[in-house]
Write a structure and sequence with these properties.
436 residues, Preprotein translocase SecY subunit, two-stranded antiparallel ribbon, mainly alpha
Length: 436
């Protein structure tokens, strides 16, 4: 892939350069916004509060927001309300006939569904922002100092407006990256937040090793383990099963075109990094509000949802398996593929065209999806369980590695696609077709 990109040459394609620069510019704007604080908060008391919450689900939330929640910046809610709204709309599409009809109307229907998702994002942001602002009023720092300087409804309304506006801006930013830049904008925002926290994590690890609080041997083992996990992710993400497709001989005029043999690639993980992101957002959305409400039973729920815990892992694995099958069904329809093959004269050797082909593809895809769901569950959960036993003082999980590797791989593939498309356009412009 990389060699193909080098052969085409990025500097020779201004359109690709422009898209990459716009993507970097949008991501830089996002990172600047992470450091703009929400008014009315004592930053030192808030930092102390998050310092006491190390090892809980808040660490996981901070990772997904790129550190914005820890600073309680204008982007404190991150892009998670948008993801939660997308989950709700996609689930309702299966249940509500009107939404199902819109999803089949092409571009206009997708635009309407996107608009519904935006409305849902604003609604979830308002609810989540209000819950966090009320919870923060009862929270204190390590020395008992209040986090909110001037509590009351004016603070709550200002916080809700600020956080909702920040999430709406991130939603717009992600759409701009998808349309004008390279890659999926929402995934790249999460990717940027995770990668931005890596230098501080390495620096903190260095300080812990220097002071003797963390064993150097343990750090080396963790690094080797990370490399092995990344290699395994790349191996599975690039893996697929080839379904042989045969096209019969055709007579066109006086010419006989020979039968062509090709294949239909079915990926082991058709859904990509979507299932872990969706499953995480379903846990993060209520847990974020629960962490900021100072009630005994709420505190019990928050403590039971810490990463690596039994309840958290069961919910997380269940969500990953569900969304893997759900999103695969959305992405790939065996009946449509079988119908297209039949229309074009293609068939799977040994399988009758039409319904039998659709059933065969569905059976193969179901088995592949099971392995893909188990792979995603293992990569996301096992590192947290293993690292939890070593009491590592920073968040490390397969979810972060999976998102980073998956998004990077998808972005590289999109860059290559743009470069190849532009190269073919250049060939078509240079070529001249002469008539007889």
């Amino acid at each position: 892939m990389a060699s193909g990109a080098q052969n085409i040459g990025i500097p020779k394609i201004p359109e690709v350069n422009r898209r990459i620069l716009l993507t970097l510019l949008f991501l830089a704007v996002y990172r600047v916004g992470v450091f703009i604080p929400t008014p009315g908060i004592d930053s030192h008391a808030l930092a102390g509060f998050f310092g006491q919450a190390k090892g809980t689900l808040l660490d996981f939330v901070v990772m997904f927001t790129g550190g914005a929640l820890e600073r309680f910046s204008v982007f404190a809610l991150g892009i998670m309300p948008y993801i939660s709204a997308s989950i709700v709309i996609q689930l309702l599409t299966v249940v509500i006939p009107h939404l199902e009809k819109l999803s089949k109307e092409g571009e206009s229907g997708r635009r309407t569904i996107t608009q519904y998702t935006r409305y849902g994002t604003i609604g979830l942001s308002i609810v989540q922002g209000l819950g966090i602002s009320i919870g923060l009023e009862s929270m204190t720092g390590p020395a008992g100092e209040p986090i909110v300087l001037d509590p009351g409804w004016h603070f709550r309304i200002m916080t809700v407006i600020t956080l909702t506006s920040g999430t709406a801006f991130l939603m717009w930013l992600g759409e701009q990256i998808t349309e004008r830049g390279i890659g999926n904008g929402i995934s790249l925002l999460i990717f940027a937040g995770i990668v931005a926290n890596m230098p501080s994590a390495f620096y903190n690890t260095y300080n812990l090793v220097k002071t003797g609080e963390l064993s150097l041997l343990l750090v080396i083992v963790l690094l080797i383990f990370m490399v092995l996990v990344i290699a395994f992710i790349l191996f599975i993400e690039l893996g697929h099963r080839r379904i042989p497709i045969q096209y019969p001989k055709r007579v066109v005029g006086r010419r006989v075109y020979g039968g062509q043999s090709t294949h239909l690639p079915l990926k082991i993980n058709t859904s990509g990094v979507i299932p872990p992101i969706f499953a995480s957002s379903l846990i993060i959305f209520p847990a974020t509000v629960v962490n900021f409400i100072d009630l005994p039973w709420m505190r019990t729920i928050a403590d039971s949802l810490h990463p690596g815990g039994l309840i958290y892992n069961l919910l997380f694995v269940g969500g990953i398996i569900f969304f893997t099958y759900f999103y695969t069904a959305v992405q790939f329809n065996p009946a449509d593929v079988a119908d297209n093959l039949k229309k074009n004269g293609g068939f799977v050797p040994g399988i009758r065209p039409g319904t039998n082909t659709a059933e065969y593809l569905d059976r193969v895809l179901t088995r592949l999806t099971l392995w893909g769901a188990l792979y995603l569950s293992g990569v996301c959960v096992l590192p947290m369980v293993l690292v939890g036993k070593f009491n590592v003082p920073f968040y490390f999980g397969g979810t972060a590695l999976l998102i980073v590797v998956g998004v990077a791989l998808d972005t590289i593939q999109q860059i290559e696609s743009h470069m190849l498309a532009r190269s073919y356009e250049g060939l078509l412009k240079k070529g001249k077709i002469k008539s007889r």
